[in-house]
Design goal:
- Helix content is 38%, strand content 24%.
- It has 318 residues and is of the alpha/beta class.
- The chain has an eleven-stranded mixed sheet with strand order 6-5-4-7-8-9-10-11-12-13-14, with no helix packed on it. It has a three-stranded mixed sheet with strand order 1-3-2.
- Strand 5 and strand 6 form a beta hairpin.
- The N and C termini lie far apart (142 Å).
Amino acid sequence: MAEARIRRGGTARLSSAKGRATKGGRGRALKRRSWVDQLFEMLPVSEATLQRMASWAIVGIFGAIAIGIAIYLGVPDMARQQAADIAARAGFEVEKVEVRGVERMDELPVYNIALGQVDRSMLSLDLPKVRAEMLKLGWVKDARISRRLPDTLVVDIVERDPVAVWQHNGQLHLIDVQGVVLQSVSASAMPDLPLVVGPNANLQTAGLNKLMENAPALKPMLAGATWVGNRRWDLRFQSGETLSLPEGDKDSAGALVNFARMDGVNRLLGRGIVKFDMRDPDRFVLRLPQGQVEEKPIDASATGTADSAKAPAQGEEG
């Protein structure tokens, strides 16, 4: 009997301990979860994935720190220089320069820039910098710099087209349609191009070309033009006459078209008239060699020159 009671008691004690364990476990299960746990449970990834992501983030941070230290110490530059030296020793070094596209400009400035790259590794060439140096040359509109392995630097030049000679401060300069100065020229070696005169006249060359397109028959006869008062043109023809045009693109184009029509009917150019003045839209004034002027309404100018001199010559106005 005593043995049975002990067995029952032992069983009772085990049951009681189990009950306490179950009760304790139930108590832990009912413990309130923190908002961090709730947030993690809402994420569409497992806890193991989050741990791996955190590990890689730590690795990435330390890697970025290591790269930053290496850059600060100049390790990449040293590595590039070492690679360039190895390439040069292997025969990949600039030994030849090939310049293409040069027709009118002096090749020497191009070669001076390109030859500064000789004896450099093909890997260490700073092609954008070489191109920027080429674009500083007045004649160069565009440039393309390339490598041709194993040892050649190729320079392709696109030249500007000269359209006029600009006279300013007693100097003559060859210019393109945008007014870019290409080079200086001497009076004894003037090219067969129109001469534009006056401050900022070079910047008006594109406008002058557009103006002359309104009278294509007169364009081959143009010898030069003066930009007067930074607002209008005086045109000089090869036959010696000067045509004063009004201000404004529209008014000057209209006056030039009207003059071309009159010249087609009456052959105004080549008759010894010194100057045609069309600044006044209502009058057409002709300056004669004898120091007189003929003046008549602009509407009647296509039928013939004026019959008589109206007034003595007056001083010119801008």
